[in-house]
Amino acid sequence: MAKTPKIIPIETVMTDGPQHVAIIMDGNGRWAQARGRPRLFGHHAGAKRVREVVEACPDLGVKYLTIFAFSTENWKRTQTEVAGLMSLFRLYIAKETRALAKHGTRVRFIGDRMRLDRKLIDLMDNLEKETAKNDRVHLTIALNYGGRDEVARATRRLAQDVADGKLQPDNVDEETLPRYLDTHVLPDPDLVIRTSGEARISGFLLWQSAYSEYEFIDTLWPDFTAEELGELVVNFRTRDRRFGAVAE
Ligand code: IPE
Ligand code: IPE
Ligand code: MG
């Protein structure tokens, strides 16, 4: 049977967006190094930038903000740095829950929770629960997230559904597969920003960012401001997104 062509709703075309911004928060280590301080000092400074950026979203028309906090590859760092980061995440969640809830932010986590410690998982579950009714900004924190890992985990679940007879192999397509991804409830990111001057994606939202616009900026994450986000959002609106078609 021929597939019905996908109709793009008119509001998607008309909107000046971006509706979903995703950020690879990079450069904490170099920021600290430049000050002769340990890398963890940079991570703490970086975590402090998140609130301002989240709170700037509603005025910029950004409904979804997704931030990369820890990758599945970051376990390769020294034990001191990894332990320091895990303790920072616990501290951050405990300290920020009230402000996030009050601001109307709904928080979700993506990534593989299995490898995280129980105390952190409980804090993450609690933050998701506490903010579940909010709708002003949808903040997604990628923690122990890897794009390849996510696709592998999704494929494992999909294969299980096929084995259980719940899904036919012929029905696996571009609509079905993303339902198994961690981001299944989120729209694809319109704009992906990476700070610190590196022009690579390091596995962030591999499937989801197929048609995202990218901004690679030199600012180190602890120096990033709401004002800079505003400039990037305005710049996004000048981009001509063709999605493979020819511009009219
Ligand atoms: C990003 O900053 C935060 C994490 C990856 C956890 P980095 O720690 O990668 O900082 P640089 O890239 O070494 O400067
Ligand atoms: C990507 O930054 C991961 C996060 C920002 C959490 P990295 O610093 O880990 O990436 P690479 O190693 O430079 O690619
Ligand atoms: Mg880095």
Would you kindly provide a written description of the structure presented here, covering whatever features stand out?
The chain has a single domain (10-146, 186-236), classed as Undecaprenyl pyrophosphate synthetase (3-Layer(aba) Sandwich), CATH 3.40.1180. 40% of the residues lie in helices and 15% in strands. It has helices at 10-14, 28-33, 39-60, 79-102, 118-130, 147-163, 226-236; strands at residues 20-24, 64-71, 105-110, 137-145, 191-194, 213-216. The model is unreliable at 8-14 (pLDDT under 50). It is globular and about 55 Å long. The longest helix has 24 residues, at 79-102. It has seven helices and six strands. A six-stranded parallel β-sheet has the order 3-4-2-1-5-6, with helices on both faces. Helix 3 packs parallel to helix 4, helix 3 (39-60) crosses helix 7 (226-236) and helix 4 packs parallel to helix 5. It is an alpha/beta fold and 248 residues long. The chain binds 3-methylbut-3-enyl trihydrogen diphosphate (2 copies) and magnesium ion. The site of one 3-methylbut-3-enyl trihydrogen diphosphate has 11 residues, from strand 2. Residues 24-26, 68-71, 74, 198, 200, 202 line the site of one 3-methylbut-3-enyl trihydrogen diphosphate.
- Which fold name fills CATH's third level, the topology? Undecaprenyl pyrophosphate synthetase
Secondary-structure content class = alpha/beta
Mass-distribution shape? globular
What hetero molecules are in the model? Answer: 3-methylbut-3-enyl trihydrogen diphosphate, magnesium ion
Assembly status: single chain
How are the strands of the largest sheet arranged? 3-4-2-1-5-6
Order of helices and strands: HEHHEHEHEHEEH
Question: What radius of gyration results from the CA coordinates?
Answer: 19 Å
